[in-house]
UniProtKB/TrEMBL annotation:
Keywords: 4Fe-4S, Electron transport, Iron, Iron-sulfur, Metal-binding, Oxidoreductase, Repeat, Transport. It holds the Pfam family Fer4. This is 4Fe-4S iron-sulfur binding protein CooF. Coiled coil: none annotated. SUPFAM superfamilies: 4Fe-4S ferredoxins. PANTHER family: ANAEROBIC DIMETHYL SULFOXIDE REDUCTASE CHAIN B-RELATED, PROTEIN NRFC. It is an enzyme of class 1 (oxidoreductase). Residues 2-30, 84-113 form the 4Fe-4S ferredoxin-type domain. InterPro entries: 4Fe4S_Fe-S-bd (IPR017896), 4Fe4S_Fe_S_CS (IPR017900), ET_IronSulfur_Cluster-Binding (IPR050954).
Length: 202
């Protein structure tokens, strides 16, 4: 099952994901109309500054088991069996913040929003853009991310790609530092064999 994967090293802190998220969760789903809405739509992904002031897009991981769900006193937080997404039922939320204290990532916020009863402050978190995904779209934050800091992919495929990236980086670093002659010769022969195999398959 696909989910939003965060590549924090690619984030430039532009905050386009936050804007897109807020608009996607507005009543109108239009930027120009959303700014006139009450309550104002707010983002469910939060870009913070990392150790070296680089951007970090922080969002709900939909943990399994989810600490927020286990801590919820009223059963307002539940997991959808089909999508495995963790949701908040605003009608049952009592704004006690038990979920926020249990969340290891600090992604829950408390405010009014379009789906909650008027005037009621409730827990709000990422819902994986379930309405957009049901329409065949990808999550709003991923759609606007131009650097690849947020991608929508199968977790196994994404981790395999990450492994390949790390391997390429490590290989490049090793080559830059200079390899023993025997290792350099081995790598040269291996690359030649790969190219020859590709040529034969063509």
């Amino acid at each position: 099952m696909k989910q939003v994967i965060v590549n924090p090293e690619k984030c430039v802190g532009c905050m386009q994901c936050m804007l897109a998220c807020a608009v996607a969760h507005s009543r109108s789903e239009s930027l120009f109309a959303a700014v006139q809405e009450t309550p104002k739509p707010r983002a469910r992904v939060h870009v913070g500054a990392g150790m070296f002031n680089q951007g970090f897009p922080n969002r709900c991981r939909h943990c399994d088991p989810a600490p927020c769900q286990l801590a919820c006193l009223t059963g307002a937080i539940f997991r959808d069996a089909a999508t495995h997404t963790v949701f908040v039922n605003p009608d049952r939320c009592i704004n006690c913040a038990s979920c926020a204290m249990a969340c290891p990532y600090g992604v829950l916020r408390f405010h009014e929003h379009a789906a909650a009863p008027p005037g009621k402050t409730v827990a709000v978190k990422c819902d994986n853009c379930d309405a957009r995904v049901a329409r065949g779209q990808i999550p709003a934050c991923v759609e606007v991310c131009k650097t690849g800091a947020l991608v929508y992919d199968e977790i196994t495929h994404a981790m395999n790609e990450k492994t390949r990236q790390v391997a390429r980086t490590m290989s490049a670093d090793a080559a830059a530092q200079g390899l023993p002659d025997t290792v350099a010769l081995y790598n040269t022969l291996k690359q030649a064999a790969v190219k020859a195999g590709a040529a034969i398959r063509r």
